[in-house]
Design a protein that fits this description.
The structure is a homodimer. Chain A is built from five helices and no strands. By secondary structure, chain A is mainly α. In chain A, 37% of the residues are buried. At the A-B interface, helix 3 of A face helix 3 of B.
């Protein structure tokens, strides 16, 4: 499982859209607080692998591409434990 | 905006994986309770339009394909108002 503390350090960029508290600043973006970590990882991988090609994917793919598998696990752990 | 009551009537199928309370029964699936309705609609449309092609999309695409735009708005309203 991921390391939420390491995820927190990595989440500064994510917070710009998904909110510092995991509640998205823009209604068209997903809240991440309390989301299933396994789902967050699979969504990030789908963006990275080009399996998501919607308009939002154009924003998320470059972000996900910069993340290692460990980064994804840590970010997922960080957001999953947010209430 | 969608009609949460109409969404509730439509959500029986969704509940099988996303939970009757919007908390996914399988950790690899997303929780929907309290998610942004606008995001839920865009995700459903992405599945319906084939803009999501991950393994999970194989499950979600047939579901989303059966939904009208109004169904999507109603389901999104239903899950967004869940606490």
């Amino acid at each position: 499982a991921g390391d939420a503390e390491a995820g927190k350090a990595k989440a500064a960029i994510c917070a710009a859209c998904h909110g510092a508290n995991g509640i998205a600043v823009i209604p068209g973006y997903p809240n991440l607080a309390g989301q299933n970590s396994q789902y967050i990882v699979s969504a990030l991988k789908a963006y990275k692998n080009g399996e998501r090609t919607s308009a939002q994917a154009a924003i998320m793919k470059p972000q996900a591409t910069m993340l290692s598998d460990a980064d994804m696990e840590n970010l997922a752990a960080y957001y999953a434990q947010m209430k």
